[in-house]
Design a protein that fits this description.
With about 280 residues, the protein is α+β, with helices and mostly antiparallel strands. Helices cover about 20% and strands about 30% of the residues. It is rod-shaped and about 100 Å long.
């Protein structure tokens, strides 16, 4: 009986030992199972696919957001000087212009006029003038605009004796100051060649102002007035003459002057006789 129990116990131990080895081998095989790398490989494959898809989307997005080349020139607007406008000589008028590139364009590079925006345009000389503005953008596109304007003398009227109708009745042979202005100093070369001059009312030959006075034009900076002296003739008594002021810009002003009858030579002007002294008798 004792021998039988010992044999049975030994058999049980052998079975348990065999089961433990098998269990350990099963666990090791499971850890080193070839399926695990397959799972990892699948995950890596998924990541690569996602990365490729993202790269493809980025490339596609980049192509759709790339800006097209700027081939449009900037726009130019000139407000002053206005095309066809006339401005007073010697007066100040500030240039007003602007340049603008299109929305989404390369951006404005330059915007330059004949003078800077806000600076005075040229009114120093009477006649025709032009004003140009040129603009460029950062892509090299360029545009320009040009306007044409005129400058003329702004005659401000006469002053002095000829400013009133009463002053336009004169004694013949008198030197008459002719005073006028333009509201600015235009220099002394304001008359056209051969002027000022006079002629009989209704027509006739023009006679330049005689000496003294010919070429004796002066300018008073304090009053902004010009003065030239008109030396009249005694032979004009009882007549009428047109004084013609033609200026360098082509404009013209006329003044009609009437001359009183001149007293005859050798005739003393009438005057009162002196009172006689009366004595007192005794």
């Amino acid at each position: 009986m004792g021998v039988f129990l010992r044999s049975l116990f030994a058999s049980v131990l052998a079975v348990l030992a065999f089961a433990g080895v098998a269990a350990a081998r099963f666990v090791g095989d499971d850890v080193d199972s070839p399926q695990a790398p397959s799972v990892l490989s699948a995950e890596a494959s998924t990541d690569e696919t996602t990365t490729d898809a993202t790269t493809s989307d980025a490339a596609t997005t980049g192509e759709t957001t790339t800006a097209a080349p700027d081939t449009t020139a900037p726009a130019v607007t000139i407000v002053l000087p206005a095309d066809g406008e006339t401005y007073a000589a010697g007066h100040t008028f500030a240039a007003d212009f602007a340049c603008e590139d299109e929305t989404g364009g390369s951006g404005l590079e330059t915007c330059a006029g004949t003078v800077d925006d806000g600076a005075a345009i040229d009114t120093a000389k009477a006649g025709k003038h032009e004003f140009t503005v040129t603009a460029t953008d950062k892509a090299g596109n360029a545009a320009s605009a040009t306007v044409h304007y005129a400058v003329a003398f702004a005659f401000a009227g006469l002053s002095g004796p000829l400013a009133s109708q009463a002053g336009r009745e004169q004694e013949p042979g008198r030197a008459i100051p002719v005073t006028f202005g333009f509201g600015a100093d235009l220099g002394l070369d304001v008359f056209a060649d051969g002027y000022p001059a006079s002629r009989p009312c209704g027509g006739g030959d023009l006679v330049p102002l005689a000496s003294p006075g010919a070429g004796a034009l002066s300018f008073d900076a304090a009053t902004q007035q010009y003065t030239v002296v008109w030396k009249t003739s005694r032979d004009w008594g009882g007549t009428c003459r047109d004084l013609v002021l033609r200026f360098a810009d082509g404009s013209e002003q006329r003044v009609q002057v009437t001359f009183r009858d001149a007293p005859q030579q050798g005739t003393a002007p009438p005057h009162d006789k002196p009172d006689k002294a009366h004595g007192h008798g005794r």
